[in-house]
Design a protein that fits this description.
This protein has five helices and eleven strands, in the order βαβαβββββαβαββαβ. It is globular and about 50 Å long. Keywords: Endonuclease, Exonuclease, Hydrolase, Nuclease.
């Protein structure tokens, strides 16, 4: 192929389940897919995806645009993460888990391949116990990375849901001390998977919890946060409506080594 880079769009779909509700009570509107397609991505990474909701319009638009879906939505609520890949690429599901939501797919053509790892760390109460559990989820992913035989062209993308700290804050007696950006960053650096620096924030104007990290043989041409859904209200306002993205997307262009 003549294409020199692979473009990835990461979107948090905000498909969560509230108490007393079921999947069928929600919808994923086709207009969301139309906005995503404006970026013309090779790969769509979707977080907080859901089965059994009203999503025929959404799926139909992407299928008509020649994308194919691979999902890891096998938890008890049929939620998880997924990706849509242009049909000019071969795609193979390698592994998935439900705690955290995690999917490993191999995407390839005659010139290149990518080990795409998609993650969403699950959260609950923001207590000490919750942050300890988030760290346990994170370590399951790190152990998976450690056990990979093929560590070439790795891209790890998702919502890491780690704690954050202001410069003046201390760790002492704060739940976030158990799982925070500093821990995540060091864990990835030690595995030669540094987080790609992106200016700005991914949530509510002050949180930077959505990331992309790449192995050393993946050259990042460009990566940015963008909010194409801001016409639907602020992210805080949109978080009230399930099925409307309430995080900034990450749009990245990557050069991958041939194999």
């Amino acid at each position: 192929m003549n294409q020199k880079y692979l473009s990835i769009l990461q979107t948090s779909l905000n498909l969560r389940i509230e108490k007393g509700q079921k999947n069928k009570d929600y919808s994923l509107d086709g207009s969301i897919a139309s906005v995503q397609l404006n970026y013309e991505p090779d790969v769509l990474v979707n977080l907080e995806d859901m089965e059994e909701c009203d999503r025929a319009g959404y799926d139909g638009i992407l299928s008509a645009a020649s994308y194919k879906r691979i999902a890891a939505t096998d938890d008890r609520q049929k939620r998880g993460v997924s990706c849509w890949v242009k049909d000019v690429y071969s795609v193979e599901k390698i592994f998935s888990m439900t705690n955290p939501h995690f999917l490993h797919v191999m995407i390839s053509n005659e010139d290149m391949r990518i080990n795409l790892l998609i993650i969403r760390i699950l959260i609950s109460s923001s207590t000490d116990a919750d942050f300890k559990d988030r760290y346990a989820q994170w370590m399951r992913v790190m152990q998976y990375v450690d056990n990979l035989k093929d560590k070439s062209n790795i891209v790890l993308a998702g919502d890491f849901n780690h704690g954050y700290f202001e410069v003046s804050e201390r760790y002492y007696r704060k739940a976030r001390r158990f799982y925070n950006y500093h821990i995540v960053s060091e864990d990835l650096k030690s595995r030669n998977l540094p987080i790609v620096p992106i200016e700005g924030y991914s949530k509510d104007g002050f949180l930077k919890i959505d990331h992309i990290a790449t192995s050393s043989n993946v050259k990042v041409i460009d990566a940015k946060y963008d909010d194409p859904f801001d016409h639907l209200g602020t992210q805080r306002e949109r978080s009230k409506y399930i099925g409307i993205p309430d995080h900034s997307v990450i749009f990245s262009k990557l050069n991958l080594c041939k194999y």
